[in-house]
Structures are given as structure tokens and as C-alpha cells.
Specification:
6-stranded mixed sheet; Trna Endonuclease, Chain: A, domain 1; 8 strands; single chain
Amino acid sequence: MPRLDIIHNAVKNAIIKDGWTITDDPYVIQYRRTMLYADLGAERPIAVEQDGQKLVIEVKSFVGASKIQDLKEALGQYDIYRYLLEATAPDRKLYIAVSAVVYKSFFNQDVIQLILTKHQLPLIIVDIEKEEITQWIN
């Protein structure tokens, strides 16, 4: 079982506060004999469901020695999970969750915005202290 990211619980609480139900912690992605673990699976309760929304959320803190290296790893992990989810759970949308502090200090840089735009990376921005989602980026 993978180690939890340092902001895992804050992101989980923010997702719940936003009206989602956590269905999996972790979310297991199994393709034939390969098993990978994304951080969270979430769904909207039926009463507020919008087009049957189901999510898989990978939480990233970007606290490594190099934020660029962290981004490269996150993008690679995102691609692998996305491809496997297309084959195993096409009804789920994959997001990367990051803290508002990291988003403001790192993700707002021009070069990072270019990469994110080209990659079309869906993000959930979370205020870690308040445990609240501040922004959804599709």
C-alpha cells in the first residue's frame, strides 16, 4: 500500500465538505494482473448527482527537492492512471489535487501554465488550512 501524501487528509476533508462521498481510500485501479493505487475515489450522492459524476483523485504536495521533477512525476502518473481508467472505469474523471499555496507559488508560473494547458490537466485546488476547495480546473 502506498504512503499517504502529507496533504491527503486535508484534501479528503475538503472533498467531503464540497458535497462528495468518499467511496475509496485508496482507489484501486486494476488492469489484468496490474494493481495501482490512486489516493481517493469519490461520487456525488444520488440526490445531487450531475451526470453520474465519479472521480478519482491523486493528491500531490510538491514538496520534493525539485518542483519540476515533482510535476514530471505527477504528469506521468496522471497519464498512466488515465489510460488504465479509460479501460477499467471510463465513467470516472481523474483529477490531481494540490494545495492553494503550491498552486499560487508554482502552478501560476508561465512555463507551468503552458505545460498544464498543453497537457489539459484537471486540477482541484485546496486550501489546506481551511480544508476547502478553492477552485476546480477542468
